[in-house]
Design brief:
Blueprint (H helix, E strand, L loop, with lengths): L37 H20 L3 E2 L5 E3 H4 L12 E3 L5 E4 L4 H10 L7 E10 L11 E10 L4 H17 L4 E7 H10 L7 H8 L2 H13 L2 E3 L5 E3 L5 H11 L6 H11 L4 H19 L6 E3 L13 E7 L7 E7 L5 H4 L5 E6 L1 H10 L12 E3 L7 H13 L4 E3 L7 H11 L3 E4 L2 H6 L1 E6 H7 L6 H7 L3 E5 L3 H10 L6
Helix pairs in contact: 4-10, 5-10, 9-10
């Protein structure tokens, strides 16, 4: 009979706890990438859930595409993006890359699946990768949140995009402004100023810098140039004073309402057909918005240019009035020629994208985000370990009622330590069931938020112990409904 070796800690037998020689790996992140811990990810998920709810209520359907695309597909809109693309050869020898936006994959989908009903209304929320220089708040992997309508040349489609943007920002109870303009109007302004076609895009890109460098800076860049903050000289476009004055007449104008701005544009661009076409498109959108009851927050702004040169019609951009330093949090426009590169057919399209991370940063700045490290609304404390099954049953009751609940699983039976644990996680409600509660068939509910507020008012320990702020004891049959009420009355932050 073979005898097993001695497994004690002494002698020459095996040790009870085998030791392995491991090479310690230094934990580190690739430059330009970021981990998202629960306190950051929870408000992001809440915001995305709100956005998806609104997208789907307007009839937009979800679309997902692979992270990898063929390199030739990614470069379909030109080689300018090549330096931003993470590209490599896969094991089968194909030249591939990580998607850098969601518009290129959408265009490929439209070209491949020709039986998709048009107009095709889709939303897509997925990560993209860009080999940009990382900056504070700017990463090489980030979420894009796009919404598009493909196959409709009607301004009704652009109105729908604007209505969705308006509703999202309204639901977040933000003080915002959605600026709209039309690339045809910008083209007309260049024509009216007698500027050569080869300088058109440079003029648009310069106007687009208005928020960053101010009117004086734009005037300098339209002319001879200017010094930036570092003292370096940035050459200008070289327009003459008459041309600069004509452009500044438009970008300085602010009307009291959309109709007033439209009248100004009609008067200023008489005889320029492309401008009148753009004005008529904006007038259709204006009438649609009026019919929807959207009068405030959406303005026509002749200075809005947006840097992307593929826009062909209406363009739009949303900014937060109380947090202007975050810039545009949503933006988009009509791009009627872009998908044609893939389909070979004229395919009208319009859409917008939400800068989720930028919007979240602005919401945090405006104190509209609740910082928590747990999804749970309720922590069930465990003070009598031998009754663990009863605690599990109570947790199940709450979960069956749709309440997010976690059971304390640490070693301590100290109520103060368990409540501190709940506080660290940001769990707002604690259920306390000790020997007294078990004996009387009762449950104590503690609203930790209310207790935190009252702790700043009640200074005396004796008064604190007597009043037990935020704490109630109820019959076991009542506790689920009472907790439902507490959860329902949260303050509405993300």
């Amino acid at each position: 009979m073979v005898r097993a070796p001695d497994c004690g800690s002494g002698g020459h037998g095996f040790e009870s706890r085998p030791r392995y020689r491991v090479n310690k790996i230094k934990p580190r992140l690739i430059r330009g990438f970021k981990d998202y811990l629960p306190k950051e990810l929870l408000p992001k998920k809440a915001l995305l859930n709100l956005i998806i709810e609104i997208y789907e209520r307007y009839g937009f359907s979800p679309l997902e595409t692979p992270a990898l695309e063929y390199k030739e597909v990614l470069l379909g809109y030109g080689s300018e993006a090549e330096k931003q693309i993470y590209q490599f050869e896969d094991p089968e020898g194909n030249e591939v890359g990580l998607r850098f936006d969601l518009t290129v994959p959408l265009s490929r989908v439209i070209a491949m699946y020709k039986d998709l009903p048009k107009p095709f209304k889709r939303y897509q929320i997925q990560p993209v990768w860009r080999y940009d220089k990382p900056d504070p708040g700017r990463f090489r992997e980030f979420i894009q949140c796009d919404i598009d309508i493909i196959g409709s040349a009607s301004m009704d489609a652009d109105t729908e995009i604007l209505a969705v943007m308006y509703e999202i920002l309204s639901r977040l109870e933000l003080n915002f402004k959605i600026r709209i303009n039309n690339r045809k109007i910008l083209n007309a302004i260049v024509i009216a100023a007698n500027i050569s076609e080869d300088k058109t895009l440079d003029v648009f890109r310069t106007i687009d810098k208005l928020d960053k460098v101010g009117l004086k800076g734009v005037v300098q860049l339209l002319g001879k140039g200017r010094k930036d903050q570092s003292g370096a000289f940035i050459p200008g476009i070289g327009l003459n004073q008459i041309q600069i004055q004509k452009i500044t007449e438009f970008i300085r104008y602010e009307g009291n309402n959309r109709e007033e701005v439209l009248q100004f544009l009609e008067k200023s661009l008489q005889g320029v057909s492309i401008g009148l076409e753009g004005i008529e498109e904006l007038r259709q959108i204006h009438k649609n918005l009026e019919a929807l009851g959207i009068k405030e927050h959406v303005v026509i702004d002749p200075s809005l240019a947006r840097g992307l040169d593929y826009y062909t019609g209406p363009i739009f951009e949303a900014v937060l009035i109380d947090a202007p330093r975050f810039g545009s949090v949503m933006g988009g426009g009509r791009y009627d020629h872009l998908i044609e590169i893939f389909t070979g057919e004229h395919t009208p399209a319009t859409g917008a994208s939400i800068g989720i991370d930028r919007l979240l940063a602005a919401l945090a700045y405006l104190k509209k985000i609740e910082t928590r490290n747990s999804v749970a609304d309720v922590l069930i404390t465990v003070m009598v370990p031998e009754k663990k099954i009863e605690y599990f049953k109570i947790a199940t009751q709450l979960r069956n009622a749709g309440i997010k609940t976690t059971l304390y699983m640490g070693k301590s039976v100290s109520i103060s330590k368990q409540l501190k644990y709940a506080d660290r996680l940001g769990i707002p409600i604690a259920v306390i069931i000790g020997p007294d509660e078990f004996e009387k068939n009762q449950i104590t509910i503690k609203d930790l938020r209310k207790g935190a507020v009252l702790s700043t008012i009640i200074k005396e320990r004796k008064e604190w112990l007597e009043k037990k702020p935020g704490q109630i004891t109820v019959a076991k049959e009542e506790f689920v409904e009472r907790i439902k009420e507490l959860v329902k009355n949260q303050d509405g932050k993300l």
